[in-house]
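Researcher: Re-running this chain for the archive, since the previous output was lost when a drive failed. Same request as before.
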Amino acid sequence: MKKLTFPSFRGLNSALPVIGFYLTAFVYPLIFFFHLWLGLPVTKSYFWLAIFFFLGLGFLATALIWKWIPLILCGAFFLAPFPVTIFMGYVAFANTYEASPPDREAVEFIVSAPRNPFAIHISDSHLLGPEERQTREGASRDRNTLNQLSAAILKLHPRYLFITGDVTDKGKDTEWKVAEEILLKPAREAGITTIIAPGNHDLQPTFFGAKQNTYLSASAAALARALLEKQVAFGGDLTSVSRGALRSLMNWQPSEAEITETSQKFYQTCIENPPDPNTPPLAWAQGCDLATRPEVIKELLLNNYFSQACSDWYPFTHYDADIRTETIVMCSVGSSTLNIGDNAIGSFGKEQLKRFGEALDQIPADANHVFIVLHHPVVRRWRDTYSVPEHWWRWHEWTESSLYNYALLSTEWREASAVVDKTLQAMEKRPACSFNLLYGHRHQPSLSGIRTDRYVLGLSEAPAFGEGEPGFRACYLQDNSNQLLCKWLRM
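Model: Regenerated structure tokens:
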């Protein structure tokens, strides 16, 4: 059998083909992992990953015969996931629900607006800590404007204050402290029921709002606990469809027996797997002993518990019997990640969607109003099409475009459509009850609905709180009707 030899430099004429081999052999894996880290949707498909993997083997085999092809194919592979991702985005975009033509929203000055609206909807405040000057997108947060808007909300005194995610810019404790001081604590003291839906900026470790840890679950747990603690302290009482009251969930502690069992299991695994066969047994045993101390294991169990809050606990529900209103809070930040492309994708997971259906089935029979509160949009706006932003050189306009949100980030359209499907099915059973979906994320306002012959599913999309034309959306209950009249209140 002929011995396999690797190409080497033997004169200038052979230099470029040899470069092709080494480029393929060493740069190709780097490109492959770059795409995984970037988090383009195509890289989350096992089908496409398998194709790229076998293409890589083919590139390497081709390189062995010293042709120019590896150079071309390596470059093609670098670019391939982008057009494939955009194609997938087109498919996703075409399969999402499209909102009906938008309502002509009334605009009124805050000072002349009627008091006691049924609800006020805000989103994407992206609050910064005292040490920060700009958000990750480069937007400034004027503290005076935010204070004035918050004071206006308190003066109007709504029954509900719905905040649909991205309360903070990175999920830092200092940012939550500002949220507490500006709005959450005053609203609680004024008797306003505040409901917070998690946003990707609140929960994603990729923004480095939590102290980074060896384990991703530790960062994810810290961010989830910070948000849920604020909901418990300053918001309305929530109940998980499958796990009971949020307050009880927050007080969970692993039992001594669970800590001991886990510690022993981890210790045994550690002892049996030294990093180097020559490691002194006594030194390695001491290291394993330190790594499996009860306090370390307890913290590990707590991190695993809280890091799964989004996927395992939601949706939460809140029922106000006095005004016969049901609120369902969903978490559309379905997975924690450090990948760039994954941090803004809306996803729920099959189990949360299943529980969402159960929550809809359990709506009290006497309910007049149902609010479904989440962060990521689950519909596309009327006549919302793919287009390159007018000022294509401005990153902020790209991130607000449909092309970016659906093609490059590829919002999970199957799950988004499932949310709408289940809601429409619930409306069929309760035609006299008003249903409303509240969300944000895109930093753009819209007020519309999904209309059928029998009913209208209300859609309220809030812009970034405090940006642009400062204001917020207030909804008032119409006389002798279950329908809400929403208007934009400006400073």
